[in-house]
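Predicting holo structure, iron/sulfur cluster bound.
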Amino acid sequence: MLYNNLSGYFRNKYGRRLGKICIDGGFSCPNRDGTVGHGGCIYCGERGAGEHIDQGASIKEQVLSALKDADEDEMFVAYFQNFTNTYAPVEVLRERYDAALIDDRIKVLAIGTRPDCIDEEIARLIASYKNRVDVWVELGLQTANDNTADIINRGYHREVFERAMELLDKYSVPVVVHLIVGLPGEGLDEIKETVEYINRFNLFGIKIHSIYVMKNTRLAEMYKNGEYAPPSMEEYVNSAVYILTHVSPRVTIHRLTGDCPGDLLIAPTWNRNKSEVINSIVYKMQLEGLSQGCRH
Ligand code: SF4
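Done. Tokens:
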């Protein structure tokens, strides 16, 4: 096994792959509404990192629509994806998570959020769902470098991430951390710094995203002004292989590239070919006799 992918994790645990129901939970984001910042992270689109999800439907409608043609023995992850899915009082959170868990075929509740929107009460609420389904929280760290965090307008520094990790660990809530390769000002040195940093934590999973320049973002303006250029595919592949070979062999790899809707993509064009990117990573690992964690 070159790396522990999510499909393998599901096959071990459930005997099959699980489908993913991407849900817009109707949340906003404190980095967009002025609470923490305005304008959001520079790469974030108008739909808060969930561009492909239909707008307007209730949570229940979104789930029912995803399940309508599913077989009785299929299984699913309910993934709260857009914006910040812990950015509300706990009663509201409970109502919205419950609205997704309306069918026994949903085996996992996955919640995407920001570390500054995790407090003790929220961590306890999320942990309470472990009686019903598997649960994990996805935190958009992207980089461990606080200078880059300021450049991308992430709106928090890494001690905030550390506090959230402590709370989630206290309640034994598994965490998937999101990383982005190709952020402004970052190269392999910053990737190394980020890998060294995340290796300090007990992570369940990692999502590795290749950056893309999407229409109507601050990053698109920077790209047009010549202030930013995305990495080449080769640079991305080298960084992804570095991450895979230096993280723990026990961590589950949930994602190996980023996915921009074709009509919104400005650059890089290689982002359109997801399978080529993944195949190139796998090919390099095979060619060089590497595997996940071999240099951990
Ligand atoms: S935290 Fe997420 S939703 Fe909020 S601005 Fe950043 S990428 Fe967008």
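The chain has a mean pLDDT of 96.
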